[in-house]
Design brief:
The longest helix is centred in the last third of the chain and has 66 residues, at 264-329. The protein has helices at residues 16-21, 46-53, 67-80, 100-108, 130-147, 163-168, 178-187, 213-231, 233-256, 264-329, and strands at residues 2-9, 32-40, 57-61, 85-88, 114-118, 159-162, 192-196. It has ten helices and seven strands. Helix 2 (46-53) links the parallel strand 2 and strand 3 (57-61). A seven-stranded mixed β-sheet has the order 3-2-1-4-6-5-7, with helices on both faces. It is of the alpha/beta class.
């Protein structure tokens, strides 16, 4: 069993070495622990300090692409490294990496595909900015409502993913990945759970992602909306269509009853747009379903390729050792 600890990093020269050194290298049930750092276009000495900390592999972007892009780069590289489990850890060292063994236990026991380290399941962390705490609560409630499962921390950077989850992840947004991954994997039928974790906030540190709360909120909501449209097109477009049709019908009824005079073309336009929206939902459902089948075929191909490569490597080792014994006896 191979564990890859994935650390996306951007200008983290003051924290990355400590973050890597704190990662436990011996965990029960895990034969090998590797640290993968994705340097997202840092302009400081993040790479140097990551090497000093003992990172096993460092992948760099030529420019700052965003934490979502860094996450997907890490996932692709973890798959190529034959990871069985991937744990994501923030580079700021606010999470205690010694909690990683607890985080992966549900995956080792086949109880979950994704495990979220929740900062808010038990108590409110000390020194967390009030606006950040309230924002996390609002987004967690929104995601919980959309997915039909209660979550207390949908923005946590400390998570564990099984191999099946790795092959199922498809994040298309570069800005952030936390909400999109949960929606994506939950709608694909994977089991997601939370466990409480501790975190230490540095009240002087500024977030690399939430630079402006209003900008972050707008972009995060657009990501959630696009992801929902992709996975539930009939529901999403149908809801929009129902609202438009209802508005058009109500407008016509008000006009007929002389309560309020509304332009007939406007109300008819609403009804037509509503019908078109429902048809778009049906069409999008067919298109996205075909894409979903294509993704499943690709995951099946990649999974079989990795198994073949592993078996081939083992067979090569056996042949090499056999030949070595023959040469030694001669």
């Amino acid at each position: 069993m191979k564990l890859i600890v994935l650390i996306p990093a951007y200008n983290e020269e003051s924290n990355i070495e400590k973050a890597i050194l704190n990662i436990p290298r011996k965990i029960m049930g895990i034969e090998e622990v590797k640290v993968l750092v994705v340097n997202d276009g840092s302009t400081d000495k993040t790479i140097d300090f990551a090497m000093n900390g003992g990172a096993d592999k460092i992948v760099s972007h030529n420019r700052n692409c965003g934490v979502g892009a860094a996450f997907m780069t890490g996932i692709r590289n973890a798959i190529s490294m034959n990871a069985d489990i991937v744990v994501t850890v923030d580079a700021d060292s606010q999470f205690d990496s010694k909690q990683i063994p607890d985080l992966i236990i549900p995956i080792l026991n086949h109880q979950a595909d994704v495990v979220i380290g929740s900062r808010f399941e038990n108590i409110k962390p000390k020194n967390i900015p009030k606006i950040k705490f309230v924002g996390n609560k609002i987004f967690s409630k929104l995601i919980s409502w959309l997915l039909g499962q209660k979550f207390t921390d949908t923005q946590s950077g400390l998570r564990a993913y099984s191999k099946e989850a790795l092959f199922s992840i498809s994040v298309v947004n570069d800005f952030t990945y936390t909400q999109e991954v949960l929606i994506d994997l939950k709608f694909k039928g994977l089991q997601i759970i939370e466990i409480p974790v501790s975190v230490i906030y540095d009240d002087k540190r500024k977030s690399r992602v939430v630079k402006n709360i209003f900008s972050y909120t707008t972009r995060a909501l657009s990501i959630i909306t696009r992801t929902l449209l992709y996975h539930k097109p009939i529901f999403s477009f149908g809801l929009i269509g129902a609202v438009l049709c209802a508005g058009g019908i109500i407008s016509k009824l008000l006009t007929i009853s002389n309560v309020l005079v509304i332009n007939s073309s406007l109300s008819t336009g609403f009804i037509i747009l509503g019908v078109v929206s429902v048809m778009m939902g049906l069409f999008a459902s067919v298109v996205f379903k075909r894409q979903d089948f294509a993704e499943k075929d690709l995951r099946h191909y990649l999974d079989n390729s990795i198994i073949f490569q592993t078996d081939g490597a083992n067979e090569f080792d056996k042949v090499s050792k056999t030949n070595f014994r023959k040469d030694s006896n001669q």
